[in-house]
Design goal:
Elements lengths: L30 H11 L2 H6 L4 E2 L10 E6 L16 H5 L4 H21 L7 E3 L22 H16 L9 E7 L12 E2 L3 H17 L5 E4 L3 E2 L2 E2 L5 H4 L10 E3 L4 H4 L10 H11 L12 H12 L5 H17 L22 H14 L1 E5 L13 E5 L21 H9 L4 E5 L3 E7 L6 E2 L10 E2 L10 E5 L5 E5 L5 E4 L4 E5 L11 E5 L5 E5 L14 E4 L5 E5 L8 E7 L1 H9 L4 E7 L19 H13 L3 E6 L7 H6 L2 E5 L6 H9 L28 H4 L2 H4 L17 E8 L3 E8 L5 E11 L10 E10 L4 E7 L7 E3 L4 E3 L3 E8 L5 E9 L7 E2 L4 E2 L5 E3 L2 E4 L6 E5 L5 E8 L4 E9 L6 E7 L5 E8 L9 E10 L2 E8 L3 E8 L1
Parallel strand pairs: 2-3, 3-4, 4-6, 5-7, 6-9, 11-12, 11-25, 25-26, 26-27, 37-42
Antiparallel strand pairs: 1-2, 7-8, 10-27, 13-16, 13-24, 14-15, 16-17, 18-19, 20-21, 22-23, 28-29, 29-32, 30-31, 30-35, 33-34, 35-36, 38-48, 39-42, 40-41, 41-48, 42-47, 43-46, 43-48, 44-45, 44-47
Keywords: Hydrolase, Signal
Organism: Phytohabitans aurantiacus
Family: Belongs to the glycosyl hydrolase 3 family.
Length: about 950
């Protein structure tokens, strides 16, 4: 979902049942019969009204209001104080499906608790989990997902979804919805960029992330994403009905992302009218329109117009309503009181003691020990008498956009102090500079006047008291937040005045971001670096000025006309942190991200580097105290190459919710032996990363599946305070087993990971691929046999030549170990499967089923269905490998189009894009890429098996091709 909306009741509360004799009220009837009865009683206007996110009450039938979409990624969000579990990426690093289910159960129970408070507004259709694959570490929403791997993502999302919906055979505790279908992993141009997915990438990588939970009946629907997929907006993605709904025998409800239906006519310009857009979305499989917050009018008007124009029929509406009501019935809405056990859940479950304990367990298990040279950790609480806890995150907890409201907060400093007790000393410093900003023109200081919207920041006196002092938090690439010393609130822009109102940067429009830009004369201009848009209502000016009343204003387009300030450093953060670290038994440096600044919805990261100021702090503290531990608290891979080389011990944690400080202390002092494992590859530098818009991980070498370099930390990495030995690897027809022994002196938990590699194949195969994993907890010296299922069908991949899965005959490496690069035992499995026959191009062949390509992209054949290949420049090509031309072909026929008025051509070559030229197919000018025509041309005779290349000489599209 994009933005929060005001939650208001759209209709008065109604009686639970107007007439108990309606068949749809009879739980003894089959569900389909009950749904048909209810849909059949609705008027056309009522049907239309129920297709919006905010479904109104139908008083004459005793039906109450219903709202889709309660956010629940790592706790119930936006409804008030609730248990805040670790971020989704943190939950994933536990590699613990059992724990994931427990957390999901707790979140589902709390959703029921909120629903009991306010049934009309606190809905039970939960928009979680996010299963988008984390194939690029710069994605702004990395914190919301689980993994770069589809198998792991599927296992974890299935567990979380099962917990959310409960185990009852009839009723749902809540209704989980998978986000965001499909291939949504960039925020830049997120509503206009197209994710290009060739067939293998689609079927082997993207679809399994969604399919697993749905096949397991652990999700009740999907949300469509903002982006385009192969040129077509995901809001009208035809695979919703054609593919997704075939994965389960149960009904699914498909919802749009917020305001995405409007994008079809707006930013995407895909349809001319909203009536066409909404009709196409429903035809594709969309059931519920998330548009215009709680105002359904535009949706109602568009659907009514679509009916009047014959674009939709009432039967189309009925089909969508059946999907919607299938979920509402399973939630128990229309059954007698007492029938649904989940309806008895009361608000006292919210942040219950049991959930607090579970939050601490989850926070403990998600911590990843990245490095531990010389057994620097765990610390001895008995021997550690003085600890320096320093860094910008040492005494705060940050929440993210989809977080719930913290009921309490245990910070790192608090957790460490509590663990050490009164007999030890904790010295602390945030390690940030404290500055004062003095206006050059007047000599007066920028000063906070209070903490409300009415208290405008202005120029104050000529001396800098605490109201004129600000602590500077560096979030990288020059981005800063400025916290006022007197108020402890951050400076922010509030659509006109500047105020010190907020405890942390927050909200959809993150207005608490600044840059201090030094000028040639040593003075500074202050650039507002918060939310900006191309909308005409937003000012183009970005620099601060001072108005006639002495208040700060956004009044200059360039630094040249901005107000000038001197920056006076009242206190050096690095010096203060170093002073704290000197003489301490250990220095714990807590650095990381601010979730509303460093990467979030609408904002990809531009770099994977640690913020420059934070990196400098770590180096200074490490030099001052060799016993330095870095705690990296963020939501994504970070290129901490210097830290890995120079700091003895490094822990990673997500923003782990209310129990973060306890979890850090638990791991630092060995009360919890770390068992978290990374779910993404951590690359060594930004230079290894391709364009974030390039989704083809096989060609770009992204993720552990295809990366051939040496990562900073590999997929699956995580250390322990004990060691594990692997022995006696055995492979049979249904599983792989290995003996695992705790060879250290402490009890610990190992995550045993099973990978395979196919040695020879017709196509490019992954370097290795996760096929299963098991967590095993062992006492010192204890040995257990770990068994991981592995079926022959698990080795299947998508055969582009026949458009179906295939298991090839051949030798497969069985790789078992502690990470993708820490393989402890190997074996060989010989599989009898298929040999993919040569491709027969003498039958009509879909062009997008090519084997390789260069420069071309994929586009929609029509707005309703189909995928074609598009070239935009000369020299771009597609390849059909090992094509059988039989006894000889002399002609080519293709379905083609061109976007403009000039003809184009496609060369047919053998062996390579510059290989033997068989002939050239002229593509006539069609003037519209949707205007397809059939073109034929003669070829020099060719026979036998060849790699056939189609090389474009200009902009053209090809949908299918046949040689004869």
């Amino acid at each position: 979902m994009a933005i929060a909306v005001t939650m208001t009741v759209l209709a008065p509360a109604v009686a639970a049942r107007a007439d108990d004799t309606y068949p749809f009220r009879d739980p003894a009837l089959p569900l389909d019969a009950r749904i048909d009865d209810l849909v059949g009683r609705l008027t056309l206007d009522e049907k239309i009204s129920l297709l919006h996110q905010y479904q109104p009450a139908i008083p004459r039938l005793g039906i109450g209001p219903f709202r889709t979409g309660t956010e629940a990624l790592h706790g119930v969000a936006w409804l008030g104080e609730a248990t805040v579990f670790p971020q989704a990426i943190g939950l994933a690093t536990t590699w613990n499906p059992d724990l994931m289910k427990q957390v999901g159960t707790a979140v589902g129970r709390e959703a029921r608790g909120f629903h009991a408070k306010d049934p009309a507004n606190n809905g039970l259709n939960l928009w979680a989990p996010v299963v988008n694959l984390l194939r690029d570490p710069r994605w702004g929403r990395n914190e919301e997902g689980y993994s770069e791997d589809p198998y792991l993502t599927g296992a974890l999302s299935t567990a979380y979804g099962r917990g959310l919906q409960g185990d009852h055979p009839v009723y749902l505790q809540s209704a989980p919805t998978l986000k965001h279908y499909l291939a949504n992993n960039n925020e830049i141009n997120r509503d206009t960029a197209s994710s290009t997915l060739p067939p293998r990438l689609l079927h082997d990588y993207e679809l399994p992330a969604y399919r697993t939970a749905i096949q397991a009946d652990a999700a009740t629907g999907v949300m469509t994403s903002y982006n385009l997929v192969n040129g077509r907006p995901a809001t009208v993605e035809p695979s919703l009905d054609a593919e997704v709904r075939t994965w389960t025998g149960k009904d699914l409800m498909v919802v749009s992302d917020a305001f995405a239906p409007g994008n079809l006519v707006g930013s995407q310009r895909y349809y001319g009218t909203q009536a066409e857009a909404n009709a196409a979305a429903m035809k594709a499989g969309l059931d519920s329109f998330t548009q215009d917050g709680n105002n359904p009018q535009s949706t109602v008007t568009a659907i009514r117009a679509a009916l009047d124009q014959g674009l939709l029929t009432e039967a189309d509406l009925d089909e969508a309503l059946r999907h919607i009501f299938s979920i509402r019935f399973r939630l128990g809405e229309f059954d007698p009181p007492g029938s649904n056990p989940y309806a008895a859940i009361t608000p006292d479950v919210i942040n219950s003691p049991a959930h607090q304990r579970l939050a601490r367990q989850a926070a403990d298990e998600q911590v990843v020990l990245l490095k531990n040279a010389g057994n620097a950790l765990p610390l001895s609480a008995a021997k550690t008498r003085k600890v320096a806890v320093v860094g910008p995150l040492e005494n705060t907890l940050y929440t993210d956009w989809y977080s719930g409201t913290l009921p309490y907060a245990v910070t790192p400093r608090q957790g460490i102090q509590e663990r050490l007790g009164a007999g030890a000393t904790v010295v602390a410093s945030e390690g940030v500079d404290r500055i004062a900003l003095r206006d050059v023109a007047t000599g007066r200081y920028v000063t906070s006047t209070g903490t409300t919207d009415a208290d405008h920041v202005r120029l104050g006196s000529t001396t800098a008291d605490d109201a004129a002092r600000f602590d500077v938090f560096d979030w990288g690439q020059g981005l800063l937040s400025l916290r006022n010393v007197a108020t402890s609130k951050v400076l922010g822009y509030n659509w006109g005045p500047f105020v010190t109102r907020d405890a942390q940067p927050n909200n959809w429009y993150v207005q608490q971001q600044f840059k201090l830009e030094e000028q040639s004369d040593g003075t500074f201009a202050i650039r507002y670096a918060g939310y900006e848009t191309r909308e005409p209502w937003f000012p183009a000016v970005r620099y601060l000025t001072v108005n006639a009343d002495g208040e700060l204003a956004l009044g200059a387009e360039t630094a040249a006309t901005a107000a000038r300030f001197t920056k006076e450093t009242v206190r050096s953060g690095v010096q203060e942190a170093v002073a704290a670290a000197k003489g301490a038994d250990v220095a714990v440096v807590v650095v990381g991200s601010m979730p509303f600044i460093n990467g979030r919805e609408t904002n990809d990261r531009v770099s994977t580097a640690l913020a420059e100021g934070q990196a400098a702090l770590v180096k200074a503290v490490r030099q001052a105290n060799p016993n330095t531990v870095v705690v990296l608290e963020n939501s994504y891979p970070t290129t901490i190459t210097w830290e890995q080389a120079n700091v003895p011990a490094i822990l990673w944690t997500s923003h782990a919710g209310q129990e973060t400080g306890h979890a850090i202390a638990d791991v630092l002092f060995g009360d919890h032996n770390p068992s978290g494992r990374l779910t993404q590859t951590w690359y060594r530098s930004d230079a290894e990363l391709p364009s974030i818009l390039d989704y083809d991980i096989a060609k770009t070498g992204m993720t552990y599946l295809y990366h051939r370099g040496t990562p900073l930390y590999p997929f699956g990495h995580g250390l322990s305070y004990t060691t594990f030995g692997y022995s006696a690897l055995r492979v049979d027809g249904s599983s792989v087993s290995v003996d695992v022994t705790n060879t250290g002196k402490r009890a610990g938990t190992e995550t045993v990971q099973l990978y395979t590699h196919q040695r020879r194949s017709r196509t490019t195969q992954p370097v290795k691929q996760l096929r299963g994993f098991t967590k095993v907890t062992l006492a010192p010296g204890q040995k257990k046999t770990v068994r991981i299922p592995l079926k022959r069908s698990d080795l299947a991949f998508w055969d582009v030549t026949r458009s179906r899965p295939v298991v090839e005959t051949g030798a497969y490496d069985i790789l078992v170990g502690a990470s993708a690069t820490d393989i402890r035992r190997t074996a060989t499995l010989h599989v009898t499967g298929e040999t993919i026959p040569p491709r027969d191009l003498r039958t009509a062949t879909a062009a997008w089923t090519f084997d390789d390509y260069a420069g071309t992209t994929l586009v929609d054949t029509t707005k309703a269905a189909g995928t074609a290949v598009a070239a935009t420049a000369p020299g771009q090509w597609i390849k059909f490998a090992d094509a059988n031309l039989g006894t000889g072909v002399t002609n080519i026929t293709a379905r083609v189009s061109t976007p403009g008025t000039a003809p184009a051509a496609i060369q047919v070559r053998l062996g390579g894009p510059n290989g033997r030229l068989l002939g050239t197919l002229t593509v006539p000018a069609t003037g519209d890429r949707y205007a397809w025509t059939t073109a034929s041309g003669g070829l020099r005779r060719a026979a036998g098996r060849h790699d056939v290349y189609l090389v474009f000489t200009g902009a053209a599209q090809v949908d299918s091709v046949r040689f004869w």
